[in-house]
User: What shape does this take?
Amino acid sequence: MLYLKNTIKRMHFIAGALALSLVFSACDKNFEELNTNPNAILRVTPDLLLPTIIRSSVNQVMGDGWGIGNIVIQQTAKIQFVNTDRYIWGDQSGTWNGLYTVLRDVNNLEQLSETAGQNNYRGISLVMKSWIYSVLTDAYGDVPYSQAIQGKSDQRFTPAYDPQEQIYAGIIADLEEANNLLGSTEEVIVGDILYAGNISRWKKLANALHLRYLMRISGRQNVSAQIRGILGDAAKYPIFESNEDNGTLRYLPELPNQFPVHTYRVGSFDEFRLSKTLGDKLAAYGDPRVQVFARPTAASAGSANPQYAGVPNGLDDVAALNYNGGVQNISRIGNLYFEGAISERGLNVARGYIMAYPELQFILAEAAAKGLISGSAKAYYESGVSAAFEMVDTNMPAGYLMQEGVAFQDAQSLERIGTQKWIGLFFTGLEAWFDWRRTGYPALQAGPSNQNNNRIPVRFAYPLSEQSLNAQSRAAAVARQGTDDINTAVWWDN
Assistant: This one.
């Protein structure tokens, strides 16, 4: 009897084990199917990369414009936490980290599109790559370029810093290649939040940027033939023809595509005010764009005679808060760049900036004034001024172009061009700063309480993290370029 019971137990155990084995076998057989998310993205494609590339890079540069670009170029000024306005800059790693992060996606887009033979996507990747690297090198000087973004592919974690001259040669070559690639294949562009897949406009942007960067290095190299070559072949090298072609990102009323500053706290926004430098210039010209760039002072708002008043850059905290009788007498930044950014007019004005038609016209005006190209510098200049008004949805007053300080004069052509270009580049990220460093227009002076020996900074110091993560490459760049501080000019600025 005992033997029989034990035999039955063994049979039950074997049967159970067999059943369990069958269950596990079935589970193993269907494991991959059961644990696969049918909605998961298993393969990255260009259309998934492109919107993030555009949005992230443009937002990074717009944020840099708000936090430091508008300040250093004296379009805005601070009344609280004024270290930035006094050139106590500290570690400026945000631009570096943010843009190199985006460049990983740009590199992936370039490789994917090249493998697939999708020249339109590849051309767009080269345009974005060129613009992003230009911001990095213009902000810092020599930066990782030829060996950058190779950590995953080549295990290269300490890339060399390329001399800026070589970086610019690469940028210009890439824009030439982008012009040749765009339109040479027929794939439809998806995910394009800048131009909605309009390849002809991407091509115009490539060539407009090409002209910007040729002018950027014109103090170091003779670029006349290259500029003439682009302008002399409109069929091969189309460029911006109006504000319709602008490389500016139109934000949306809804997250995550809103104008970045729209989401800031009111207190943070109100630390920034109209700069007296810009405010006084606009007042001297009777320029109505002040009503876009700023608001009437709180003390005069709603009155029959609203006042626009700026605060000098570079004051200490106490002087800034008490200037002109207090903050009620200092203009805040225009509402279209904050709460009004999601209004219909705000969506047209507060845009992310890569490059636009007015800037191109000022570049051509300068080139003509310097004899680099033929054509009328005056005509290009006046076209640029008119387009700059249109770009911020403001009517240019009759007679504006004829008044003192604005009317084009050969003897003062570069000063007039530079000043109007500076006004037109309001809130365009760091571009106004880069261009001012090259031209010296308008004439700016460091604020009275600046902490940089009365010098306006001309670059960012390298991120502190580079001293530990890439010390040898950084040291070689510093030895070649000069002291790693905010007063060492970059190659094209020497």
